[in-house]
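#data-curation
PF: Archiving a pair of folding outputs for the training set. Convention for this channel: one message per protein, sequence first, C-alpha cells after, nothing in between. First:
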Amino acid sequence: MIETLADAYTLFTGWLFEAWLQPALYALGLMDWADEAFEWMDFVIFGAIQVLVVMAVCLPLERWRPVERWESRRRVWTDVTYTLLVRLGILPMLGFVLFFAASARIEGWIADSGFVPPTLETFLPFLREAPLLALLFYIVVLDFAEYWRHRFQHMFGWWWALHSIHHAQTQMTFWTDDRNHVLDDAIAAAWFGIIAVLIGVPPGQFPVILMVLRLAESLSHANVRLDFGWLGERLVVSPRFHRLHHGLLSAGGTGKNYGVLLPVWDWIFGTADFRRDHYPRTGDPSAPRAYVEGGWLRQQAAGLREVWRALRGRRA
C-alpha cells in the first residue's frame, strides 16, 4: 500500500512539473533551475497535502466539542499564518538552503570512503522482509527522539526562549502545532532528518512517517474536549493529555506530557500526568507580550531578542 501511494504521488508530481512548471521555466529562460524548482514544488505539494489531511480530521472535532469558545479568533489566525508559511514556504526553503548542499557533500564522502553506516535493519535483519513492521519501528524510534527534543526545549534556557512562543498561545487549536520560531523549526528539522538518516529510514517511508507524526501533533493541540479512555490515554497521546502540557502551570522546566505520539516515554521517565476530565487554560504567564499578542513577524523578532538575552544570562 505504501509503495502504491508513493507511486501515485510520484506520478502526480511528475505530471504537474511537466504540464505546468517546466513550460513556465522555459518561457522565463530559467531551465537551469529545473532540478531546484522540482524539489521546491515537491516540498510545497507535500506540505499542502499535510495541511488538508490535518484540516479534514481536526476541524470537525473542534466544532463538535470545543474546550473554549472565543469572541475574537485573531490569535488563532496568527497560528494559521505560521502553518501556511511553514508547510508551504519557510521551512522547505530553510531545508533546501541549509541542508541540501551539506547532505550532498556528506553522501559523496560516504560513497568515496566505502563506509556503510549501520541502520536499524542492520541490528534487526528481520525488518528487511517486513516493511510495515519496519515502518512501525521507525515511527517508535523517531517518536522517542522527538520526546527528548521536546524535553530539551524546556530544559535549556536559550531553547525555552524560542519554544516559549509555542506555549504563549492562549487560544490553542490544531493550528498551534506550527507556532514555532524559525530557528526552532530549523533545529527540529535537522534533529529529525539526521536521526532518520542514521537509522536508515527508506525514502519511500519517510513521507508516511512525517504524515503520521504531523497528524498526531496537530490532533493533540486541537481545541476539543476529547480523551481516549483509561487504556487509550496510555497508548496514544490525546488532546486532553497534551493540553495538560500547555496548561498555565506547566510552562518551562516543570512541564509534563512531552510525548508526541506515544505517552509511554512520559510514563517511563516520570513526566506523565494522566488526570482525566481536566482541560486547563493554556499559555505561558512569563512570556513576553509580543509572544502572546504579536503577529508572526513581531514574534519572530522578539524570539531573536529573547534567545540573545538567554544566552547572555539576562532573561528572567
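PF: Second:
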Amino acid sequence: MRGTMMRPIAIAAGGTGGHLYPAIATAAALAERGERVVLLTDRRTAERSSVAFASAEVHVLRGEGIAGRGLTRAPRAFASLALGAIEARAILERLAPAAIVAFGGYPSVAPVLASRTRVPKHRSRIVLHEQNAVLGRANRLLARFADLLALSFAETARVPERTRTALIGTPIRPGIAALARQAYAPAGPGEAIRLLVVGGSLGARVFADLIPAALALVPQALRQRLVLTMQCRTEDMARAEEDLGRLGLAFRLAPFFDDMAGLYMSAHLVLCRAGASTIAELACAGRPALLVPYPYATDDHQSANARALAAAGAAEVFDQSTLTPRALAERITTLLGSPARLQAMAEAARRFARPHAAHDLAAAVLALAPMETK
C-alpha cells in the first residue's frame, strides 16, 4: 500500500467478457495489495458489473465501438468517443490516477487519449493488456502511448516495433486459477466420461447442431459412458434436448453456468470456442480441449489463440466451416479411447498456463506507478 492519500489505479475496461473478466481479476489483485481502484467504463458495463466491481468507484463514460458500424453510423461512434474523452479528462484531472490499466475495446480509448492531453508531470502511467494472440484494434491505436504492453501470448501478431512489452498472461478468476494445483485423471475402464461443451458468453448455436449429431455417431459402448454438460442458447434448448434424449446418455443443458471451476475440474475433455479467457482457463485447469474458433472474431484472433494452445500440445483445432458431425465423432472417439493422449494434453496445458497473471499484472502496474501522493 502506497499511503492513505495514495493516487488511485484506474481500470479502463468494458464491452465483452473477454475484456471485462481480466479487468475484474486485476482489480481484485490490486485491491488485495491495498490499492484504491477506480473503474472507467461504458454505461452497459457499469449496469451489469456492479457486483464484480463492488469495491471500486465506477465512472461512466460515453463511447461506442466503431468496428462494423458502417459509413452511416461511424461518425456517431467517433463523436461519442470524443465526448467520452472530454468526460475522461475531467475525471482524470480530479482523480489524478497513478496508472491507467486498459484492457482493449472502445472503453479503453477515451481514458488513454484523455490522459495523454494532461500536463506531462501529472500524466498517468499507461499499461495496456492484450488478451489475444493478435493485438486488438484499440490497443494498436493506443500502443504508441503505452508505458507497457502486457501480452498473454509469447507470439502476438501486430505489435508495433519499439513497444515495451511483458509476457504476463490473461488474468482469470481466482477459483479457476486455483485449479492449476489440481491433477488431471482420465476416466478409468467402465467409469463415466465427462464431456464439457461451452460456447462463450452467449453460447454457440453451432454446438447445438453438431454435438447431438456427432454423439449419435460415437460407438454405443462409449456413448453410454458419456456425461455431457453443454452450454446451450435458450432458443435452442428444446431442440437439443429432444435430439440428445434419443441417444441414451446423461446430459445437462443450460444457457449459463455459474460453477465453471467445478465443471472444468470434473471434465475429461472440453469442446469450446477459443476466446482468450477460455484459453487461459483451459490451461490453468489443465484440461485437454477440442477448439472451434469463432469464425467471425475480429482479425480472426480466436484462430490465432487456438493455434498457440495446439502448438503447445494441449488442444486440437477445427475450422467451423469444414467441421462435420462425422469428423467430430471420430476425434471424440479417438481421444476418449486414448487416456495417455488425454493425459499428455492435460500436462501440456498446465505448462502453458500462467495462473498468477492477475498478480503479475498488478505488480507490473505498481512498479511503473509513481509513488508520490496527491
